[in-house]
Amino acid sequence: MELSKAIYARSKRFFSEIGDMAYFAMRFFREVVSAPFEWKELIRQCYRVGNRSIILVGVTGFILGLVFTLQSRPTLLEFGAVSWMPSMVSLSIVREIGPVIFALICAGRIGSGIGAELGSMKVTEQIDAMEVSGTNPFKYLVVTRILATTLMLPLLILMGDAIALFGSALIENLKGEVSYLLYFNKVFDALQYSDIIPATIKSFFFGFAIGLVGCYKGYNCAKGTVGVGEASNAAVVYTSMLLFVIDFIAVFVTDIFVEL
Amino acid sequence: MKETNENKQPVLEIKSLFKSFGDNHVLNGFNLKLYKGENLVVMGKSGSGKSVMIKCLVGLMAADSGTIKIQDFDITSLGQKELDVLRTEIGFLFQGSALYDSMTVRENLNFPLRRHKNKVDGNKNTEELVLEALDNVGLASAIDLMPAELSGGMKRRVALARALILKPKIILYDEPTTGLDPITAKEIIQLMRDVQKKYNTSSLIITHDVDCARVISNRMILLVDGIDYAHGTFEELSKSEDPKIKAFFKN
Ligand SMILES: Nc1ncnc2c1ncn2[C@@H]1O[C@H](COP(=O)(O)OP(=O)(O)OP(=O)(O)O)[C@@H](O)[C@H]1O
Ligand SMILES: [Mg+2]
């Protein structure tokens, strides 16, 4: 009895939170299309998103390429299928591993940053101060950040993919004496638009999720420094979960289209 | 209640304001009228709902019931755009200064000007306006510093400069002297009086600092148990025999 009550209370809180977030997202769509637009702030936020995560994504991508190729070599050798390496690596990275890993990294880096930043602005009444000075803080702070992550994530992911493939080519070049030219020729033979486009669309949603959850958590931050920490932490946790949900849906939908 | 005010039109009026947070009934029918050119002090204990009242006043919090009129506009009936325009007529000094900590002092002062510059003075450029505002609070040298590099008193002055940069007709001060040493507090009070004289503004000052109230108030309201418990001048109230009123003035 106690248990079922606790479960009921928890799930009620969970769903009301989802409802609040959906409302927050709706408010974003309403305000993103109405003037005035904060262009300068949008560009600044795009720059910040890129600046904060470009090195992280680059390094992770490079290591991902190296490790993935090194790990796969023995298996492929066994089947005498090493020549398939470029196509296998590129397909799995571009379609699935790249977007998910880079988005998770950005969730940790950017999502938590947004959560903490907006959270502390909320707690120290900076958001209220904006509101009374006649600037809509939702537009200035939230809309620009969500747009920035949505636009930047696909770029970061494409860059990460490219660096990962370079890392893979490096291993193949050293171990299997495959020239870079040959490697990338094979990569571009294997990759179809039907691989890149769904992955890119997915990346937009990943970026949107990172910005949305970070902003939602920060903007609704509870009072006090504890609240800021929680906002930042919850932003990462919720975003990571949401990323997997989006990924699942994306794979599902792509699958239906491929069947057709 | 001053007879001289009877036939004047208030620039700001709160009528029977109610606001609760769950079972915490903070305001239970609070009334207030602010007349042109006066300094009205609202005193109340910590946690009595002074900040809540002032936040309802500018629409940062929705009141449960009651009417709030600013220059004859009922703020609950205004749309976002109209409210934004009306807010440029009001300067708000936050209890904790609330400077934007990711921006320099200059950018902090620029912020209200971004959208509403033409309200002030079309001929002057932003830089001149910012410098003028900083000069008024004696901090022109701090223009390129970050808020984190300022002392508490300096922050309060910058916040004051920011609140005044759009030349508002009404200024709301939420505990302007709290957390400052007595000398700095005096300086801030002096600044408030200078501003009042220079721009002939009407001010609503929230405080629990008796010294501040004595120096600056033309009229006072005591906020007790969520209502406007007593009205009067500082002298009238400080002589009162009511124990609830006396509690404010005994030192
Ligand atoms: N956002 C909020 N949610 C819930 N309760 C709140 C909120 N803001 C204020 N309160 C409650 O309202 C009451 C009044 O708070 P308020 O901040 O107005 O006090 P105050 O008179 O300004 O005190 P101080 O002099 O310390 O600033 C407090 O009991 C507080 O717990
Ligand atoms: Mg307060």
Detailed description of the structure:
With 260 residues, chain A is mostly helical. Chain A has one domain (39-259). Chain A has eight helices and no strands. In chain A, α2 runs antiparallel to α3 and α7 runs antiparallel to α8. The longest helix of chain A is centred in the N-terminal third of the chain and has 40 residues, at 39-78. The radius of gyration of chain A is 21 Å and the shape is elongated. The mean pLDDT of chain A is 92. With 251 residues, chain B is of the alpha/beta class. Chain B folds into two domains: 5-89 and 168-246, Rossmann fold (3-Layer(aba) Sandwich), CATH 3.40.50.300; 103-167, no CATH class. Chain B is 37% helix and 25% strand. Chain B has nine helices and ten strands. In chain B, the strands form two sheets. Chain B has a six-stranded mixed sheet with strand order 6-7-8-3-9-10, sandwiched between helices. A four-stranded antiparallel sheet of chain B has the order 2-1-4-5, with helices on one face. In chain B, a hairpin with a 2-residue loop joins β1 and β2. The mean pLDDT of chain B is 87. At the A-B interface, α3 and α4 of A face α2 and α3 of B. Bound molecules: adenosine-5'-triphosphate and magnesium ion. Magnesium ion is lined by residues 50-51, 95, 174-175 of chain B. The site of magnesium ion (MG) has 5 residues of chain B, from α1.
